[in-house]
Amino acid sequence: MTMEASAFPGWEPKILAFCCQYCAYSAADMAGSMRLEYPTEVEIVLIPCTGRFDVILALRAFEKGADGVFAAGCLEGNCHFLDGNIRARKRVNFLKAELKSVGYEPERIEMFNLSASQGPRFAEIARDFTQNIVGLGPSPAKKL
Ligand code: FES
Prior knowledge:
Number of helices: 5
Structural class: alpha/beta
Helix content: 40-55%
Order of helices and strands: EHEHEHEHH
Shape: globular
Distance between the termini: 29 Å
CATH class: Alpha Beta
Bound molecules: FE2/S2 (inorganic) cluster
Strand order of the largest sheet: 2-1-3-4
């Protein structure tokens, strides 16, 4: 399923989803197994834990052409590395402020928490996030 980007002809959003190997990746896998539709523009990057999702990784994603980036990890209290998802949320909030200060919309980066059994929720997150990015248009880096 691809998203229409009619306001920007020829542009297709590039979205990276950094999913922890436990809950979020399993949820994404379940969404696939259930044949739930979500945008093909969402590219999943498997990481051990969202605690691994750091500022450098996120900025590199934008530098390499991502229009939107999200981290998806276990529910709060269920991180397999204790507080990786809490640290990731702090980093995402930090990045939102930093991106805003350089002209990016803070909505281009988000953090989500879900359990391994939430395949439908993963598909919903992927659809909603992609729709939001389509509404924002190409990354400011692409408009230069
Ligand atoms: Fe899933 Fe840490 S193991 S967020």
